[in-house]
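Q: We require from you a single protein entry containing the residue sequence and its fold in token form, and nothing else.
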Amino acid sequence: MIEWWVMSAHNEQAPTTLQRGLPARSIAYARTRTCIDVGVAVAIFVAIVFTIAPDMWRPVLFTVAGVLVLVALTIEIPFIDRMRISNTSYDIDEGFVQIRRGILFAEDIIVPTDRILNVAIVQGPILRLFGLARIRFVAISHFEALGPLFLDDAIRLRAEVQGHQDSGTEIMPNGRPANAEG
């Protein structure tokens, strides 16, 4: 990960808020996804309790599960999901794709467009239900996903990154610029 201050020295700018954020519909998607995750976890927990736990421990274990579900419903879904989506922003220019996200542990990812090998749009059934998609930037050493975004925005961003790539230096499969010696 390249820290923001390294990038700001390159651009000779102070850190600023990135230009683009995730759409508001992403919050509804995140809440739905959290509800599904909690529901699946509770179902697995209940199945394990019924098959493994002795009868005398079941009320205690179900109480603990109920408290955890209550915490998820009162804290995770209304507040954490909104903060996570609201604290994700991104920007794309001719040289870099920058993604900033995080609440307690802020993460600033900067991927040079000439290092991006593939830009994939991923859309599972829940994302499709909300009309959203994720865009995945596959670079030489790793990949970064951004989203959920509206599908039209994801397609436009992919074209924008690929357009910046076309104007830059070609990267060979070994990770070196095409005009590099050796």
Remarks:
- The first strand starts at residue 20 and ends at 21.
- Helices lie at 4-11, 25-52, 58-86, 125-129, 151-167.
